[in-house]
Amino acid sequence: MSAILFVDRDGTLIEEPAGFQVDRFDKLRFVPGVIPAMLRLRDAGYAFVMVTNQDGLGTDAFPRADFDGPHGLMLQVFESQGIVFRDILIDTSFPADNAPTRKPGLGLVQPYLRDRGIDWARSAMVGDRDTDVQFACNLGIRAFQLKTAQFGGEWDWAGIARELLTSPRTAEVRRDTKETRVVVRVDLDAHGEPVVATGLGFFDHMLEQLGKHGGFGLALQCEGDLHVDEHHTVEDSGLALGQALREALGDKRGIGRYGFTLPMDETLASAALDFSGRPYFVFDGSFRRERVGELPTELVPHFFRSLCEAAGLNLHLKVDGDNDHHKVEACFKVVARALRDAVRRDGVALPSTKGVL
C-alpha cells in the first residue's frame, strides 16, 4: 500500500504573493526547504497529489495563460529535482459558489476514496490555511499547517519530513471471539518490560521472551476458554500478535527484513525469518514431554504457525536438544532475536526488488 502526501500549492509549495495570484514568472518563489523535504519523503515511498483552489481561474480576472506559465515552470523545477506529482487537482470556483470540489470539500478526491491501495494511516495533508486542515480532517488523515505570518501554523517542511519519517511504529489489536478475548499492543521502537497475562504461566513466560529479546514493547492480555483446553488461547494470541506486528511495520520500508541461531545449554535453535508478506512455516523439532508447565508442547509449533499467518511471515524454525523446557524456551528466544534483526529500522529503502512487501 502506498502513502500519499496531499499538498496545497500557493503558500505551501510556492510562496503566495500579496495579491494571492501567481500570475507572472517574477512572482514564483519556492517555500524554503520544500524540495529537500519532499525528496526525503519520496525516497520513503510517498506519492504526491497537489490539491489547490485557484479562485476564478480561466476568467477575465485570472486568465488561464497567466497561470499556466509560472505553474509549468514550477513543475519543471520540481521534476528536475526528481519530484513528480501523481496528480494535480485544481478547483477554479469562487468561495461563494460553495462547490463540492473546493477545499475543504472532497469532490476532487473522490476517486482516491475508492482506492484500496492507499495507506491512509500514513497519508497526510500539508497546507497553509485552515481550509487545508479541515480538508485533511474530512479525509481522515493527519494535517500539517505550515507556519506563515498571515495564517499562523506551526510547521516547516523539515519538521514535517522528520515527523512523518520517524513516527513510532505501534499497533493495537483486539480480537474477540466466542472462545477468547485478546488485546495486544506493540511498539517496535520501544524497549520496556513485557506485560503478558494469558492464564498460562509458562506461555506468559515464553511471550515475555519475544518482547524482551525481540527488543520491542509488548503488552498482551488474553481471556480464553481454558476450561475447555489451552488451544484457543495459544492460537488466538499468536494470530493477534502477528496482526499487530504486521500493522506496526506498515509498508516495511527501512527494515532489515531477514533475521539467528541461539544456544541454550545443550539445546540449539535456529530461526530463518523473512517478512515477505507470504506466510509460510516450517518446523523441524520434537518434544518428548506432553506439557511444559501448563503449555502443551504440541501447541508450540501451532503458535508460530498462527503468528506467521497473521504477520505475513516466512519462518523456518529448527530446534535440537534433550531438555524440553530448554527447547521450547530456545524456540521463543531465537524467534525473538530474529524478529529484532528483521524489524530494526535502518534508513527508508524498501528491501525488495518487487517494490512492495
From TrEMBL:
Report the principal subcellular site. cytoplasm
Give me the ranges of the annotated region Histidinol-phosphatase: 1-168
Please provide, alphabetically and separated by semicolons, the GO molecular function terms listed in this UniProt record. histidinol-phosphatase activity; imidazoleglycerol-phosphate dehydratase activity
Biochemical pathway: Amino-acid biosynthesis; L-histidine biosynthesis; L-histidine from 5-phospho-alpha-D-ribose 1-diphosphate: step 6/9; Amino-acid biosynthesis; L-histidine biosynthesis; L-histidine from 5-phospho-alpha-D-ribose 1-diphosphate: step 8/9
Q: Does the keyword Phosphoprotein apply?
A: no
Subcellular location(s) per record: Cytoplasm
Which residues does Mg(2+) bind? D8, D10, D128
> Where on the tree of life does the source sit, at the highest rank?
Bacteria
Q: Which PROSITE patterns match?
A: IGP_DEHYDRATASE_1 (PS00954), IGP_DEHYDRATASE_2 (PS00955)
Ranges for the region named Imidazoleglycerol-phosphate dehydratase are 169-357
Q: What is its EC number?
A: 3.1.3.15, 4.2.1.19
The record lists the catalysed reaction(s) as: D-erythro-1-(imidazol-4-yl)glycerol 3-phosphate = 3-(imidazol-4-yl)-2-oxopropyl phosphate + H2O; L-histidinol phosphate + H2O = L-histidinol + phosphate
Matching HAMAP family: Bifunc_HisB (MF_01022), HisB (MF_00076)
Name of the protein in its database record:
Histidine biosynthesis bifunctional protein HisB
Q: Which organism is it from?
A: Lysobacter yangpyeongensis
